[in-house]
Amino acid sequence: MSAPEPPLTQPGGAQPPLNRPDSQGFDPQQPPAQKLLDACVHCGFCLATCPSYRVIGKETDSPRGRIYLMNGINKGEIPLTATTAQHFDSCLGCLACVTTCPSGVQYDQLIAATRPQIERNHQRPISDLALRTLIFNLFPYPQRLRSILPLLWLYQRSGLQSVLQSTGMLNRLFPRLGAMESMLPKVTAAAFRDQLPRLIPAQGERRYRVGMILGCVQRLFFSPVNAATVRVLTANGCEVVIPPDQGCCAALPAHQGQQAQAQNLARQMIDAFAQTPVDAVIINAAGCGHTLKEYGALLADDPAYQAKAKQFAAQVQDVHEFLATKDHSSPL
Ligand code: SF4
Ligand code: SF4
After folding, report:
1. Does domain 194-324 have CATH number 3.40.50?
2. Ligand 1 centre and the CA of 103: distance in Å?
């Protein structure tokens, strides 16, 4: 139960070629808005809440430092190079700095404008490109991800995982792959197919009809979270609808500046819900929720989708946000 999947592409999709030399700065296509940059008064309140600053300890890996870099690149005073790009790459996109900032700096919009600029105007090393190609062509597509599950299952059950982890071999040979592997959840039987039906009736009187987004990685590796979300919703009078053609919400490519791919996935998600009238579209993963609520901005330049995107985004609610505004029919 997921959307049709496109052919394999390089990161960037329909964006300009990747292997061109670094430019001197951002191009004119929606660079970070100067007005938003000017809102930063450099007070540094955000530094203590920024995880990348707390781990790396450099000003250039803090929100304030990144805003300074964006400003400099915008004005042509700082070049966009591998070094400057690295400081943007180290931003986790957690947006803790946004809620902390007393001046209301919209860092979320700034970093969202910066990332596609980096993809268009900075040449990444081949190894980086290879890893990113793998990630962007695999993770947002549940069917592709499912096709490698037998290998992952075998890897975990055969004892190879224990050997590689205990010897630290993978980390030494391929550190980034090792880091990804260390987060690999246990592959269970539930990962091999979607468990939830398309329609789950409310328990007792139906008070709401909500659509639910299953996620791409979540539906495979964290399906008990989706099942628990459905239980809570139905116990509180929600009929839950799960449109079968839904795919990835676009958060992964959007957070990495892969604008064309993110836009395609957003259009697909909107289409998947087009024939499903609901009171709200429910999401239970915060990063996905943020992107879903930004569909209006993501598709602002698409005349065929800009209105639909805004309408869809207005319906999106985190499950906690939704329940917090409703009378509960069951104790939570
Ligand atoms: S982003 Fe906000 S909190 Fe951080 S330095 Fe700028 S004004 Fe201060
Ligand atoms: S979004 Fe980036 S800059 Fe802001 S707190 Fe998170 S890691 Fe730091």
Report:
1. yes
2. 7
